[in-house]
Amino acid sequence: MEPAAVQYDFLRWIVLSPLISCCVIALLGRKLPRVVTGTLASASVGLSFVFGLLGFLQLKSLSGHGEGEAVFLADSLYRWISVGGLTADVAFMLDRLSAVMVLVVAGVSCIIHVYSMGYMAHDKSYWRYFSYLNLFVFFMLLLVSADNLVLMFVGWEGVGLCSYLLIGFWFEDMEKAYAGKKAFVVNRIGDFGFLLAILLIFWNLGTVSFGGIFAQAPRVLTAGSGLATAIALLLFLGATGKSAQLPLYVWLPDAMAGPTPVSALIHAATMVTAGVYMIVRLNVLYLLSPQAMAVVAAVGALTAIYAATIGLVQDDIKKVLAYSTISQLGYMFLAVGVGAFSAGIFHLMTHAFFKALLFLGAGSVIHAMSGKQDIQEMGGLKGKLPATYWTFLAATLAISGIPPLSGFFSKDEILWSAFSSPHGHWAFWLIGWLAAGLTAFYMFRLLFLTFFGTSRADEHTRQHIHESPSLMTVPLAILAVLAVVGGFVGMPEALGGANSFHHWLAPVLASENGTLNAEAAGHFPEAVEYLMIALSVVVGLCGIGAAWWVYINRPGTAEKMADSVPLGYGLLKNKYYVDEIYNIFIVQPVKLTSIYILWKLFDAGIIDGLVNLSGRTVRGLGRVAARLENGYTQAYAITFILGVALLLGALLW
Amino acid sequence: MISLHQLLLLSAVLFVIGIAGFITRRNIIIMFMSVELMLNAANLALISFANHSGSMDAQLIALFVMALAAAEVAVGLAIIITVFRNKQTVNVDELNILKW
What we know:
The complex is a heterodimer. Chain A has 27 helices and 3 strands. Chain A has helices at residues 11-28, 34-63, 96-119, 126-145, 149-167, 174-205, 210-220, 226-242, 251-254, 260-269, 274-281, 283-287, 290-311, 317-337, 341-368, 386-399, 406-420, 426-451, 459-464, 470-485, 500-505, 515-523, 526-553, 557-564, 566-573, 578-626, 633-652; strands spanning 4-7, 71-83, 86-94. In chain A, helix 14 runs antiparallel to helix 18 (426-451). Chain B has one domain (4-94): Helix Hairpins, CATH 1.10.287. Chain B is 78% helix and 0% strand. Chain B contains 3 helices and no strands. The chains are: A mainly alpha, B mainly alpha.
């Protein structure tokens, strides 16, 4: 049955509101007072959230709570492209999936905007910051509410651009400008895959609109065919770039060079989740290719554990969070890879809450530490930053999967799906389970080193430690509440919940018309599910206990452990030397080819050579012809008269 | 009555004198006068034919040509004066700044 579209005119304002604010700030920001700039920026995103909420309620009233017929809201602005068979409209759609995304993106963005007003208060490019931030939110909302792939791609590229602008926001620092460039270039590699996938889809299905794709794909593409796999894998390549998965994750740790609220917004809550959203959006295509699903799940699982191990030894507070983000995104891909799309989106949502909170908390810590980010120089901040400490603790417990916080429900659902889904495997579960333990360990290591013990900061810094203004702590508190209770919307049936999140998304997911999990649950007795839940709690507690043992009970153990396995420690400390390997095998060859073959040989030699040759030819001819132009007026006159005489002679002959 | 033949001969002689002057002299004022001479020789040829054929139109045109020549002389002399002010010379061989 075709989903029914309902026209809804407010939809465009969800997207346009931040764009208008961005234009106003970009054009007038220099003259506007800071308060006005910040308030306008935050209010515009707040407005998007309100419109999103209205749309959500409308959607809910149209379709009821259950898994009724799929209804979505649509709003078409104009026909954008119409070439041959290709048509693409600037049109938005809000179905159950994009409604969740719009609410998460606009909600978290709004909180971060408010926080930024405090964090960036003293920055000299205040207005530039807010115009970029609004532009980013515009593109992100465009991405999640577009009704066709081409428009989605515009948003996709747009967030990449804004990411570049915001990471390199403090571009006077070469290092930071370079980080922005790296993020952009690495993302381009993924985007190329995405673009190829769009072309393949258009070629074979003859349409780029989501509605058309959902209708055509099962008819045109054979399940398991090479074509379906190629499309799915190319899309996934795009997702690995944007969502920082192996092998294209390298930009995200460096992206921490941007202002901390930017890291919270882009590199935790919104942009990096675009890849997950895209795969879930196109779940129809993925289900046609079990091979691609397996690849997605494997890459996700590997990334989850890989990034978690690196996170164990990082000393920069934001770097730890960056690797943690990569690891958590790995979970989401693991979820979608095993067909548990709603679990992936659920984790995306809870992760947006607690990771944004962690980043903003880290920002508050950095603010207090006069810009220092090394956790080895922190310690003992618990008493001095109470609001930051308590909210940070809530987020850390949530990410560690301690019940009943939000992270527990979403992570547990992913692990259970990895184990029980027909696409799953016990190995996926094991990797995810180990990564969960590592997550708990490194997050509590971060917490203990930062807030517990005695201060290791120098005298000057210590005197300046102060709690952040309420513009920053209130957003922390709101996010903390969300991080604590956000999980209840997806409480599994096994624990007496309704799992309303799962049911809400079910109509937009081709696989999960109630069949997948019901089928899976049939294979395993309920006791297994309870055992799994218990195991994932236990591993989280073990991680926390280990962190407590190493960093609180026996300080100095960490150094001893590092000394006892210097090889392993060095490997982790240097992030498996991946940046170096990429440098040797990819960056340098490209660079050398560019310099010696493309530039010096081809461009300077052949292209410039041809241009110079034509120039030289003309000059040579000119030199001969210039002999006629001797500057003597009388010589010209004689030529002229002779010419006339010749013409006359010819005429009169 | 002067015949057409004689008038055309006079016109041709004047024209050739003009050419000769234009080609052989280096003084820009003399050259300018030579050009004027050629113009008037042509003008003379025109009205000679007009007189021969009894047409009034060409005689009218000759008046226009004279008016035009007067204007041209004004502009030309102004240019020559400006050139002299800048270069302190009216020798055309020395006016070669546009030569490549």
